[in-house]
Specification:
The protein is mainly alpha-helical. Helix content is 62%, strand content 5%. Strands 1-2 form a two-stranded antiparallel ribbon. α1 packs parallel to α5, α2 runs antiparallel to α3 and α2 runs parallel beside α4. The N and C termini lie far apart (44 Å). 24% of the residues are buried.
């Protein structure tokens, strides 16, 4: 399988028998994209304890699932809103990694720019009161 990246001229070849092993999956459907946006709007119960938030975020990121990355975006965004303090550098890096990943996929599925997808994601994550 040849993977071409829209943002660069980079191409990666992955043997077909290794597709699952490297974590490739089909692009989300519009229905799955709507479900991801719904996850962002759901209430969340985020721990005030940094180590607990980090453990939860790390486990979700390692799953490589879009809905799990969306939960990380939602939870860290809401924590920053509630606490009124900036996220730690580690949490901020995790948030931006997840945001870029989800925005990249949603931009393809919804046929919008990555910037518009990022704005939509953050609007959803910030808009729902706890």
């Amino acid at each position: 399988m040849e993977l071409a990246f829209a943002s660069s001229s980079l191409k990666v070849l992955v043997p077909m028998d290794a597709v699952r092993e490297v974590g490739l999956r089909p692009l989300s459907t519009k229905r799955e994209a709507a479900a991801v946006l719904a996850v962002l709007a759901q209430p969340s119960d985020v721990s005030e304890v940094w180590s607990e938030r980090t453990a939860s975020s790390t486990a979700r990121v390692q799953s490589r699932e879009l809905d799990q990355a969306s939960m990380v975006i939602r939870d860290l965004t809401r924590h920053a809103q509630r606490s009124g303090k900036p996220l730690s550098s580690t949490e901020n890096a995790v948030l931006h990694t997840c945001l870029n990943s989800v925005a990249s996929e949603l931009s393809l599925v919804l046929e919008i720019s990555e910037d518009d997808a990022r704005d939509l994601i953050l609007e959803q994550a910030r808009s729902t009161p706890e």
